[in-house]
Specification:
Layout: H1 16-30, H2 33-42, H3 48-70, E1 76-78, H4 82-91, H5 98-116, H6 120-127, H7 130-152, E2 155-158, E3 162-165, H8 171-188, H9 194-209, H10 243-268, H11 277-296, E4 301-303, H12 307-312, H13 318-327, H14 335-339, H15 343-346, H16 348-358, H17 369-384, H18 388-405, H19 415-429
Antiparallel strand pairs: 1-4, 2-3
Helix pairs in contact: 1-13, 2-3, 2-4, 3-11, 3-13, 5-10, 5-11, 7-10, 7-16, 7-17, 7-18, 8-9, 8-16, 10-18, 17-18, 18-19
Length: 430
């Protein structure tokens, strides 16, 4: 029996060549995550080189596990949104050491793994309204877009109005706007790897004009992950005060993965229902990888929507993911190139990804009052309070409150009520 038999290529009407092309396409589409994630997390003081290596390794490991174990064409890597929350919300915002923040990632991963192996998985999936998941995605989009615009210098702090427009005549701001517009152009033209293309173009123009320094070399041995690996401080996060952050990482990771799997799964007809074996195994793969990511020194992994590009190229099995994982070996040796990418070429990506996530608002049913009010507070409170936790918990409380006013007492049996109770503890007891 060939090892290829486990992927059931004939049953899924695909071939090795189709899966190879699909894997390459997915890799190109999500390559941007390596410099972007390393830049975001390095804001905490973590070494950039180690983050490049750790991000790449987790992309390889998580994607390979998904392909081999779940046999789905779903690529995994460090998720956008939670990485920004890790750096700008927990470490820089709440002044939590990055080692403790990694402890939050690790503990949330353990809980996620337990949930993925238990009936709780189905309860959470089925009792959290799809529109709340969409609102959460949009809120995170608004949050990371705010961070992107702030780091680009497009918006700055103001004593009188909290935030205001920055000085758009500054060189780094102009280059950031150039990168942003480039990304919009490439995405509008539906070019493969639009985000990495925008980063490359902005960086090359910056090098050519002397605004940024050229790399002294292109290829080098991978940086060591020793400075960040196994550095998570678990004991410091096992307190009541850290429960909201742990819940935020847990719920957001589950939401991200479910949302992506629903979107990509519909395209490839992968998952029949919430009891689908492939769905269960894909979530288990993500959960295991999240535990490992905390140990490796990066934030939670999640399924990447860019997997859809591979599916569009004909990828239908886990062999697509295996090929994607193998392609991710290549970036391990290009640290000098990544280090030479200026930050103004990176942060526009947050804004673009934010717009992708924000578009989920168009799919929400606003005729439901509980959904309507909860959506508003989720989307508004995340960027305004600089916290995914606050937005999610505020929205959960509003959803349950309005549902009870409308005498829809079945909400008490849902996981939304659990989050509403946690929100009361978060806002009034801690």
């Amino acid at each position: 029996m060939s090892w290829l038999d486990r992927f059931e290529l004939k049953q899924n009407n695909t071939t090795v060549s189709k899966e190879f092309i699909a894997g390459l396409t997915t890799f190109i589409a999500m390559l941007y995550i390596i410099p972007v994630n390393a830049t975001i997390l390095s804001a905490t003081g973590m070494p950039f080189g180690a983050l490049v290596t750790a991000t790449t390794l987790m992309s390889i490991i998580a994607t390979f596990i998904t392909g081999w174990w779940a046999n789905t064409p779903i690529a995994m890597s460090v998720g956008m949104g939670l990485n920004a929350y890790f750096s700008f919300g927990l470490v820089l915002g709440m002044k939590i050491p990055w080692q403790s923040a990694l402890g939050v990632v690790f503990v949330s991963g353990i809980l996620y793994l337990l949930i993925s192996l238990s009936p709780l998985r189905k309860w959470i999936i089925e009792t959290i309204p799809l529109d709340i998941k969409r609102a959460t995605s949009a809120g995170i989009g608004a949050f990371i877009a705010l961070i992107g615009l702030k780091e680009m210098g497009v918006i700055v702090a103001s004593k009188s109005t909290l935030v205001t427009l920055g000085d758009l005549s500054q060189t780094h701001v102009l280059f950031g706007l150039f990168g942003l517009l480039s990304a919009f152009v490439f995405a509008t033209l539906k070019l493969r790897g639009a985000l990495i293309l925008s980063i490359a173009l902005t960086t090359i123009v910056a090098w050519a004009s002397g605004v940024a320094s050229l790399p002294k070399e292109i290829v080098d041995t991978p940086a060591s992950i020793v400075p960040i690996a196994m550095q998570m401080d678990i004991s410091s996060v096992l307190t009541l005060a850290m429960i909201p952050a742990i819940v935020t990482f847990l719920v957001t990771d589950i939401f991200d993965t479910i949302g992506t799997l629903i979107g990509v799964g519909l395209k490839a007809d992968l998952f029949k229902d919430s009891d689908s074996t492939k769905l269960q195994k894909t979530m288990q793969s993500d959960a295991l990888a999240t535990v490992m990511s905390g140990m490796m020194g990066v934030t939670s992994t999640t399924a990447f929507i860019e997997s859809a590009t591979g599916v569009e190229e004909g990828g239908r099995t886990g062999l697509t993911s295996v090929f994607t994982a193998l392609f991710f070996v290549l970036p391990l040796f290009f640290l000098p190139l990544f280090e030479a990418i200026p930050s103004f070429a990176i942060y526009p990506v947050l804004v673009v990804v934010g717009t992708y996530m924000f578009s989920e608002l168009g799919k929400i049913d606003y005729s439901n009052n509980a959904i309507k009010y909860a959506t508003f507070f989720i989307v508004v409170m995340m960027p305004l309070t600089y916290s995914i936790t606050n937005g999610l918990m505020f929205g959960a409380f509003i959803y349950v409150f309005v549902s009870l006013v409308e005498k829809r007492f079945e909400v008490l049996k849902s996981s939304m009520t659990l989050m509403a109770i946690i929100s009361l503890i978060l806002f009034f007891a801690l």
